[in-house]
Specification:
There is one protein chain. The chain is α/β, with parallel strands linked by helices. It folds into three domains: about 5-55, no CATH class; about 55-150, no CATH class; about 155-275, Trna Endonuclease, Chain: A, domain 1, CATH 3.40.1350. It is built from eleven helices and six strands. It has helices spanning about 5-15, 20-25, 35-55, 60-75, 80-90, 95-110, 115-125, 135-145, 150-175, 180-185, 220-240, and strands at about 180, 195-205, 205-215, 240-245, 260-265, 270-275. Strands 1, 2, 3, 4, 5 and 6 form a six-stranded mixed β-sheet that branches. Strand 2 and strand 3 (about 205-215) form a beta hairpin. The longest helix is centred in the middle third of the chain and has 24 residues, at about 150-175. The two termini are about 45 Å apart. InterPro entries: CDIN1. This is CDAN1-interacting nuclease 1. It is found in: Cytoplasm; Nucleus. Keywords: Cytoplasm, Nucleus. Pfam families: TPD.
């Protein structure tokens, strides 16, 4: 996808209030772009917005104000209080739920001090452990309603990531390419590992590939730049040139490190050249 097309899509998405509404209007306009790619682009842009505005909501005075609004709503018999506040202030329901939970624990258990992050995380993952049943139900509702943030979304992303890693492994198996996975590499003492290290390299469009990384997402500028810094160049330093598969596509202009040894693809390439012949067992 060209950068200009990506920018057009993002600008259009920002005109709509929800993911479903955005995809419903945008999908017919860009039939060449998969729904999976559009969904990934929407999620990435939404998360960027949350990162940029999160500090505006997270000051002590602001979180106290949100908690007081929540308490006032519950005391007056309202339902869906946290979800309503989240929509009103344009904040992810799961993020606001966590803030409310932190304030609640601070007031009821920790004498005004912040509760341990690990405890808050545990309670967000399992709301049945929250002693206040009204708050537990409110947070559970927000988690179920939030399609961009929170523990449920994290599990879905994790599951999709595994699905595409399995797809990669199945392709390699069908092509009889020998490889080792992350667990095997970590057992050998590597701290940062790609999804696959080929035991015998392949060539793709004249470029050698020693390792392959599977990304079940769209490759936008922000995520790709972060991956290069935190992952891809580390793989390159350890194992040499490799390939990244963004299964939901990527911005074409980001494929700029080919000559340095990192190529981008949106599927497993068909035009591979084996550096060893396939030995057929009798």
């Amino acid at each position: 996808m060209k950068l200009v097309v990506y920018n057009e899509i993002v600008d259009l998405m920002r005109k709509y209030k929800t993911r479903d509404e955005a995809l419903r209007h945008i999908t017919p306009r860009y039939p060449e772009v998969s729904v999976g790619a559009l969904g990934s682009i929407y999620a990435q842009d939404y998360q960027k917005k949350m990162r940029k505005t999160h500090h505006l909501h997270y000051s002590p005075d602001t979180t106290e104000y949100y908690y007081d609004r929540y308490r006032a709503g519950v005391d007056s018999g309202q339902k869906h209080v946290i979800l309503s506040i989240a929509r009103n202030i344009d904040l992810a329901p799961s993020l606001l739920s966590r803030m409310i939970l932190e304030r609640h624990l601070s007031r009821t258990k920790y004498g005004g001090e912040n509760p341990p992050r690990s405890q808050v995380t545990q309670l967000m993952k399992d709301t049945t452990l929250i002693e206040n049943h009204v708050l537990a139900n409110e947070i559970h509702e927000c988690i179920l309603s939030d399609d961009q943030y929170g523990p449920l979304v994290d599990k879905i992303k994790h599951s999709i990531g595994h699905e595409y890693e399995f797809k990669l492994n199945s392709t390699l198996d069908s092509l009889q390419l020998s490889y080792i996975g992350e667990d095997q590499m970590r057992a050998k003492g590597y701290d940062k590992t790609p999804d696959v290290k080929l035991e015998v390299p392949i060539a793709v469009d004249g470029h050698m590939v020693n390792w392959i990384e599977s990304k079940a997402s769209f490759g936008d500028e922000y995520s790709h730049r972060s991956y290069l810094k935190d992952q891809f160049w580390s793989y390159w330093n350890r194992f040499g040139p490799g390939m990244v598969i963004y299964w939901f596509g990527f911005i074409d202009e980001l494929d700029s490190n080919t000559e340095k040894g990192i190529i981008l693809r949106d599927s497993f390439p068909e035009n591979i050249v084996r550096l060893n012949p396939v030995v057929k067992l009798k």
